Amino acid sequence: MRGLGQGSGAALRALEVDPRLVGMLGALLAIWLGFDLLSGGAFLTPRNLWNLSVQTASIAVMACGMVLVIVTRNIDLSVGAILGVTGMVIGVLQARLLPELLGLEHPATWLIAVLAAVLVGGAIGLLQGALIAWLAIPSFIVTLGGLLVWRGAAWWVTQGQTVAPMDGRFRMLGGGIEGAIGATASWILGGLACAAILAALLASRRRRLRFGFPVRPLWAEATVAILAVGAVLGTVAVANAYPLPAGIARRVIEEAGGTWVPGTFIPHGLAVPVLVAIGVGIVITVLALRTRFGRAVFAIGGNPEAAELSGINTRRTIMLVFGLMGALCGVAACIATARLNAATNAAGSLDELYVIAAAVIGGTSLAGGAGTIAGAMLGALVMQSLQSGMVLLGVDAPMQNIVVGLVLVLAVWLDTVYRGRMR
Amino acid sequence: MTPLVEMSDIHLAFGGIKAVDGASLDLHEGEVVGLLGHNGAGKSTLIKVLSGAYRADSGDIRVRGEPAHIHSPRDARRYGIETIYQTLALADNLDAAANIFLGRELLTAWGTLDDAAMEAATRQVMGRLNPHFRRFKEPVRALSGGQRQSVAIARAIHFDARILIMDEPTAALGPAETRQVGELVKQLKAQGIGIFLISHDIHDVFDLADRISVMKNGRLVGTARVADITKDEALGMIILGKCPPGAIPGPGAMN
């Protein structure tokens, strides 16, 4: 047993993959298989997995920003409220202001709305970040105040009225039937992603060889490549196995000038909000690992004094991290508002807790200095899987909360044990 | 000859406490100046003014005779001043290369971090300082005290420092590693680098330094060539503030 453990440990080291990430994938798989068994095969269906991915998107987007916030030894409790207020602002913008200025369903409406969300969210984040960085008010307090202020502001925008409907193109950001890119585009995108993964692996290997550094053995390199490509193509295959409902499929075919044959299979393909979330994840990962800014963020988390003495502008960095967090709340607000096809002042309530939980389940240390974007996004998926699975099994809402709460504590305990062993 | 560094009449108070009270120091090329004094004598504070961590209330700093404006660690580095802090000032969660290049990372043509180039440079400089060092991929948290020290030293010498500040460089080291640091000091000195050596250990300082300056209660007791005074006289300066005949007395000397 021990020999086996050491053997698999050596294999993991050769693969240079994060063992924690492997553990999370294992946990996710166990949750999925468990729910599938308990629900008699209703969980692992293309339909359920597709919906699961769409439901995860908004939390996953915010979790990316939360990782950076927590890495700098801060916290942001205001993300749900920022989502709420930005959602209201863009709701009023596209349902009331822009139709008067540009006309209803103008092609630029969605773009203006998205830009406005990112700008409003980013500005709120920068403001909070400035208070934290320059006035040295603890982030817990600033964002706790922010939670109340922005939730109140969300109500204020329309005196509590719900705003609907949203612009047609904007609604694609929320997924749903029109918010998927179809089978062909999904395969093309999947193919491009695979090509990019292979090119990146090859480039990094060449680079290391040129400097004469040790590289992964070829079998390990091939395993990583196969797993990554397999994951991408598998995701596309699942999304393409989920058909549009008959009524919609009929409309699509008739609009294209064809004749409807009952039983025609038109796949959804990948959902737009999922693509947005994956895109955000990639951008933030690059930012965290491959830029000076990201290096500064992790250095501040590891040792703020050392970062300062190295000439890093720590205050500016922290302010920008909160600005980025706010901008991502704006992106999440677009997804949430588009999905609901309405802006309500309660949107995003309690999201701060889910976002923080996703980051922490994903291995982000509350002590700062450690965390990965991929882990946080997986954490968001784990939480959403638990919730969707329990809904599928007919578990009541209070019990769902109890389970999610217990899982959060359990996950952090396991992580603490793991870290303790690593020392 | 113009001194490499000249600090004159530096004052710095925290609240009502005068941490540094009219201290002056100088340092020439290829010279090691030991800065001695009890805990709280003001030596670390004085040196942090030079490294940009603190800003003096008043006083002048000249580098190669030109007035220097040092308001931050970044400014100090522009004048070729590098510091090895007593706490080492390492980010424990980052690896050796990330620490050595912290705040001045090498970038690719795309503006992204050039980790391979930084690792190559790190392997080179660490090969010189600590040939047995192999743990390039691990966070410095996992390294031994001596290894961490060599990372901190590598960071200071990699960027063509002209002036090096070493704050208690051997406090956490064993005898073999202490000897290694001593060798390194001699080697750097031969390259014309000026070194301020802050230490509790009077033996270390007498072995390595050309001159010593002694501080007491934020004031300079005096400065002397190590050849002109004995260790007992130096101890008298540290403990009593008594300036021996071989030394040039400062404002803090007992009358």
Number of helices of chain A: 17
Helix content of chain B: 25-40%
Helix residue percentage of chain A = over 70%
In N-to-C order, the SSE pattern of chain B is EEEHEEHEHHHEHEHEEHE
Report the principal-axis shape of chain A. globular
Q: What is the C-alpha radius of gyration of chain A, as a whole number of Å? A: 22 Å
Query: Structural class, judged by helices and strands of chain A?
Result: mainly alpha
Radius of gyration of chain B: 19 Å
CATH superfamily of the largest domain in chain B: P-loop containing nucleotide triphosphate hydrolases
CATH topology of the largest domain in chain B: Rossmann fold
Morphology of chain B? globular
Tell me the structural class of chain B: alpha/beta
Quickly count the helices of chain B.
8
Instruction: Give the quaternary arrangement of the chains.
Output: heterodimer
Topology order of chain A in helix (H) and strand (E) letters: HHHHHHHHHHHHHHHHH
Residue-averaged pLDDT of chain A: 91
Q: Quote the beta fraction of chain A.
A: under 5%
Q: How is the biggest beta sheet of chain A arranged? A: none
**Largest two-chain interface:** A-B, 27 and 30 residues
Quickly name the level 1 CATH class of the largest domain in chain B. Alpha Beta
